[in-house]
Amino acid sequence: LFDYESKVKKSNVHNLSTLRGFLTALIDEMKNPDTKIPSKNYQNYIAILHKLENQGALLDVPISKINDSHFEIFGSYIRKECNGVNYINLMKRFRAIINKAREKKFTTAVLSYDFFRDVPKSTNDHKKAQTETLGGGNSLTLAQMREFINLDLSLIKYGGPNRMFYKELYRDFCIFIYETKIRPCDIVKLRISDIQSIGGTEYFSIVPTKKKNHIDSRKAVQQAPITIKTREIIRKYYGMSPQGYIFPFSMNNYEWD
């Protein structure tokens, strides 16, 4: 950011002394890092930038002046004007911005407002989003799941090669999620070597992506029992992935660094 500041001072692109300038520079730095691999994390900061733009009053406050009162104002805006959607994530991100500004010596403020005590009761983040997008956010019933399992895949139009194989692969992947309750991003990476037997029962023993940086590595390991249906799917695709993955997706045919 200091390198960036020296550049933008000449072009007057961003005024880093304001919340708007610091956040915009932070996003630019995340998009085009000099020393690290680019990350999509900047998208979270773009989301809060848009919210701050809509709020209107905070972006041009000097970054050194931002304090708990501004933090509370932002939280109140999200709860009242945005119906509380994504409240917790946005508040965490606001605090993270100030923490980063403090690390870079742009401020000495430490935000201590306990925004969790004001979490909207009727508009929990994920429940609100699910209700708006799915008309209720309910999980599939057993009857609906059976209907999905028995669906005639020939009814689904798909124009690529190996049409039936990929339609079956997708359905089996969905069934696998339903049976194991493992996150999709972790199922994609499952290998045969992740299977362990404990007391005669087979499990998947993995460190979920969500817990890969967990302080206690032992507690980060989670186990998911292998059901009859998941065992059938494992056998169906066994040996199809050169790298030993459960599912032979195209991206699993390469040995990534």
Written description of the protein model:
By secondary structure, this protein is mainly alpha-helical. Helix content is 47%, strand content 5%. The chain is built from 11 helices and 3 strands; from the N terminus they run αααααααααββαβα. Strands 1-2-3 form a 3-stranded antiparallel β-sheet, with no helix packed on it. α2 (19-31) runs antiparallel to α3 and α4 runs antiparallel to α5 (87-103).
Question: How would you summarize what this structure contains?
Answer:
This protein is mainly alpha-helical and 257 residues long. The chain has helices spanning 2-11, 19-31, 42-55, 68-81, 87-103, 125-134, 142-149, 163-180, 184-187, 217-220, 228-237, and strands at 195-198, 201-206, 222-225.
Structural class: mainly alpha
Radius of gyration: 24 Å
Q: Tally of extended strands? A: 3
Distance between the termini: 29 Å
DSSP helix count?
11
Helix-strand string: HHHHHHHHHEEHEH
How do the strands line up in the largest sheet?
1-2-3
Largest sheet: 3 strands, antiparallel
Low-confidence stretches: 129-136
The helix fraction, in percent, is 40-55%
Average predicted local confidence, pLDDT: 82
